[in-house]
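Need residues for this backbone.
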């Protein structure tokens, strides 16, 4: 449990590598009963997920929430679209940004906050291959510097 009351269920670790995150927003998630129990058990995956805006409503698409075994046939499709709960003004603002600039909405983290399932959505721009290489290079340099500092402290 984080210091801000978050109990993280799933992170989209590829998002930071594949996308440049420009802005984030916290959204509620419309779930069915067995999905909540499955999330409490930590059975979720955001790796191929994205968010979309259609007819004034936001949806989380392709997020995988595993079926809850004890629910039997009450389980819904694990990859079904789930409605995101956002203020209308936020939806309109983000819809404009996505349409005009070629940006996309990517889920970054799925978590419980005060007992409610939330998803952090990021407004993202795809990185080019060169940008990814630059990020790898920066990470390697930072790792080398940290290693050198540790070695220096040991002496």
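Answer:
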């Amino acid at each position: 449990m984080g210091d801000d009351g978050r109990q993280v269920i799933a992170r989209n670790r590829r998002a930071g590598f594949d996308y440049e995150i420009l802005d984030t927003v916290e959204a509620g998630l419309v779930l069915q009963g067995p999905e909540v129990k499955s999330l409490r058990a930590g059975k979720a995956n955001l790796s191929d997920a994205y968010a979309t805006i259609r007819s004034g409503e936001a949806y989380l698409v392709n997020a995988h929430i595993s079926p809850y075994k004890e629910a039997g046939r009450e389980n819904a499709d694990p990859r079904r679209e789930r409605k995101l709960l956002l203020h209308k003004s936020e939806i309109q603002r983000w819809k404009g940004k996505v349409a005009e600039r070629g940006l996309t909405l990517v889920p970054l983290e799925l978590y419980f906050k005060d007992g409610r399932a939330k998803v952090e959505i990021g407004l993202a721009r795809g990185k080019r291959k060169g940008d990814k290489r630059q990020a790898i290079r920066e990470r390697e340099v930072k790792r080398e510097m940290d290693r050198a500092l540790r070695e220096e402290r040991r002496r």
